[in-house]
Here is the input.
Amino acid sequence: MRRISIDKTEPGVVLGKTIYTDSFDVLLHKGVVLTKDYIIRLKARGYTTIYVDDVETADVVIKDPISDKIRTMATKDIHKVYKITQASLVKIEADTTDAVIKSINTPKFKNAFQHNPIFIHLCNNLNHFLEGIMSQDVLSGLNSIKSFDNYTYEHSVDTAVISTIIAKRLMLSQDKLKQVAVGEFLHDIGKIFIDEKIINKPGKLTPEEFETVKLHPVYGYELLKDVEQIGSVAAHIPYQHHERQDGRGYPRGLTGTNKLDMGLLKFREGDRLIMLAEIAAIADFYDACISDRPYRKGLSPDLVYELIKTGSGVQFNKELVDCFLSVVPKYPVGYEMRVKSGEYKDYTGIVASVNPQRLSVPKILLLNDDQKKKIKPIEVDLGSYARVLEIECFS
Here is the structure.
């Protein structure tokens, strides 16, 4: 199986992973042979990449850290929580930040949110999500198929996956893992209090619009801060996931210590970053950058990997970046790649597998020569190959 751009998809290819609608019902089952009409409809729905099965990559296993069932269940629940909460906003008449916060904190609105059966169902199903993660030591790749319409909900699940695997590597307690998961599930829920025309704007935001968007962590925190089911630590993940170590983040410009905080994971009053939110900041940045959006194409995962390394100690907690780099590969399995140097220069293929002990030197499967002609597949283990081969991902 491999991951390819929808723009490169030809009729006759076999779908390698089930695709869901924006309400997370099955749109096309795995194994369906794609027709020209199917491809056109997928493009119209905002799908930019898909997974396909073919003979050349039959031995390439792209392992999802959670099952389709658990992913779909979690994504549906997040979607419903957003929609039900959004439906309550018709009763809010507020045109200033303070007025929105006051409306969010009315007992009627807050109680309607935390006692909603869908929200309770989301919280009660956290154990199912965590059970899928507990067997994972590294993340070979994120395998969700995002469309422009379902991005928010798939992004929420993917950031929860990344954050939980990091938290697991740090040997945090089950209770902390739950707080990480639910905090990430709802880390962007504050956006529902912002005009959809701004949130979904296809072009660059004006300075005024960006200042409005920067309020979503505040609104998310105000909604979640008194919710007993998740606790104050989980509420601070939405609040702090855009803060930076150097104090140049938002909404409060908090600074970090660049250290692991293994003993102070409970929120204390005062202006300090909590480690669970620092984990979320890395996960949110990674998944947001590699994902296609209406206003820009996603960056390659190896480039984002390097951006996170560069941001270590400045944007992101340095010791947490080290942990991130130990669980997330530079070149995820299934991604298309190009050889940049060596005897196979300009040959292309896919990342075939990763070595958990050496995540930056995967096995690759070369499928095309430097003239873009198909060749008999050549497997190269970069970890044991005698010569240096530099590679890069592309889509």
The beta strands are 2-5, 14-15, 19-20, 26-28, 49-53, 336-339, 348-355, 358-368, 374-381, 391-393.
